[in-house]
Amino acid sequence: MKDAFQRLAFFISDAVGTYRAFLVAAGSVVVWAATGPLFGFSDSWQLVVNTGTTVVTFLMVFLIQATQNRETRALHLKIDELIRAQRRARNIFADLEHATEDELTELEAEFRKVRARATAREQAKQAGGAAGSAH
After folding, report:
1. Where does the sequence pass through the membrane (predicted)?
2. CB-based contacts of 63: which residues, under 8 Å, 6+ apart?
3. Domain residue limits, the chain
4. Distance between CA atoms of residues 111 and 109, nearest Å
5. pLDDT digits (tens, 9 = 90+) for 59-105
6. Would you say 18 and 72 are in contact if contact means Cβ atoms under 8 Å apart?
7. Which stretches within 17-100 are classed as H helix?
8. What pTM was computed for the model?
9. Is 40 left (phi over 0), alpha (psi -120 to 50) or beta?
10. How many CB atoms lie under 10 A from the CB of residue 34?
């Protein structure tokens, strides 16, 4: 049952992520709007689109979330493998999605410092190159 749901979720996710699906949805809205005068813009006429869009949206949330969860999990595994394969990489990054907010903030600060040092080195190199070409 679980595999069938995954297959269905991917099939639907792939299908609704196309321009054709958008055209079908847009066409449905146009047809619905065009039939408004035929039904006198009645409450029933409005209820049709409101109910339809609510049901579709409700179901799509679960299908999209299932697809996203699987893709995120696969991406994490790929990144974990790259980290594992690099000798100089710190293993803490392989399980970073389970880090606390404080740990993430600490690592972000560390990388901001690394970026600042790299930017300063690059600017110094460019300034040195500009000064050297002026002679």
Report:
1. 21-39, 45-64
2. 8, 9, 12, 13
3. 2-98, 100-135
4. 5
5. 999 988 988 998 998 998 898 888 888 888 888 888 888 889 999 99
6. no
7. 19-34, 43-85
8. 0.57
9. left
10. 9
